[in-house]
TrEMBL record:
Gene3D superfamilies: 1.50.10.10. GO terms for biological process: sucrose catabolic process. It comes from Aegilops tauschii subsp. strangulata. This is Alkaline/neutral invertase. The keyword Hydrolase applies. It is an enzyme of class 3 (hydrolase). It catalyses: Hydrolysis of terminal non-reducing beta-D-fructofuranoside residues in beta-D-fructofuranosides. Coiled coil: none annotated. InterPro entries: 6-hairpin_glycosidase_sf, 6hp_glycosidase-like_sf, Glyco_hydro_100. Its EC number is 3.2.1.26. GO terms for molecular function: endo-alpha-N-acetylgalactosaminidase activity; sucrose alpha-glucosidase activity. The keyword Protease does not apply. Keywords: Carbohydrate metabolism, Glycosidase, Hydrolase. Invertase that cleaves sucrose into glucose and fructose.
């Protein structure tokens, strides 16, 4: 294997776990773009393209299965059993049902869904992130049904996600002790500032 192939293999062969939705969606889009740009007849490209296709399948399965949340999946998570460790475990990441935030039950409509912020052992970041979900649609990381559900969610929760301003970057904003722990009391990231639920200035067109 050439040096170029080994370098590409390291990038493409990295795991699909532990990254937030926007990183996963952008990575998926970059892999699809690479697949279009590479010439199959060039030396070493066939092997690279096969590895890209393998990674695309793994990443799309991981995201569509474990990051997706709608009303039906919320009910499944709410009834999760913990401490399951065999390959037959339903709760693959040992998510604790008590970690579901109270705001989510009011936010999640019966029609619609979205990709959560992140999934890691024993914890899910249930917040809505606009960039990751929008890029997931553009990159076809979301299935057609999921893409439609994301748009349905935006329509159903228009006042929360858009209201009188451009699309909020995330919802809801974190505050109180959680804000102190996550941001280190950074005044730039106060409640509803740009990095804590603020709007996208670029969307004022």
């Amino acid at each position: 294997m050439s040096g170029r192939s080994r370098s590409m293999d390291r990038r493409v062969g990295q795991g699909v776990y532990g990254y937030p939705i926007e990183i996963q969606a952008l990575f998926f889009m970059s892999l699809r773009c690479a697949l279009l740009l590479l010439k199959p007849e060039a030396e070493g490209n066939k092997d690279i393209m096969e590895r890209i296709v393998t990674r695309l399948h793994a990443l799309s399965y991981h995201m569509r299965t474990y990051f997706w949340l709608d009303f039906q999946q919320l009910n499944v998570i709410y009834r999760f059993k913990t401490e399951e460790y065999s390959h037959t475990a339903v709760n693959k990441f040992n998510v604790i049902p008590e970690s579901i935030p109270d705001w989510l039950f009011d936010f999640m409509p019966s029609r619609g869904g979205y990709f959560v912020g992140n999934v890691s052992p024993a914890r899910m970041d249930f917040r809505w992130f606009a960039l990751g979900n929008c890029v997931a649609i553009l990159a076809s990381l979301a299935t057609p049904e999921q893409a439609g559900a994301i748009m349905d969610l935006i329509e159903e929760r228009w006042e929360d996600l858009i209201g009188e301003m451009p699309l909020k970057i995330c919802y809801p904003a974190i505050e109180g002790h959680e804000w102190q722990n996550v941001t280190g009391c950074d005044p730039k990231n106060t409640r509803w500032s740009y990095h804590n639920g603020g709007s996208w200035p670029g969307n004022k067109c």
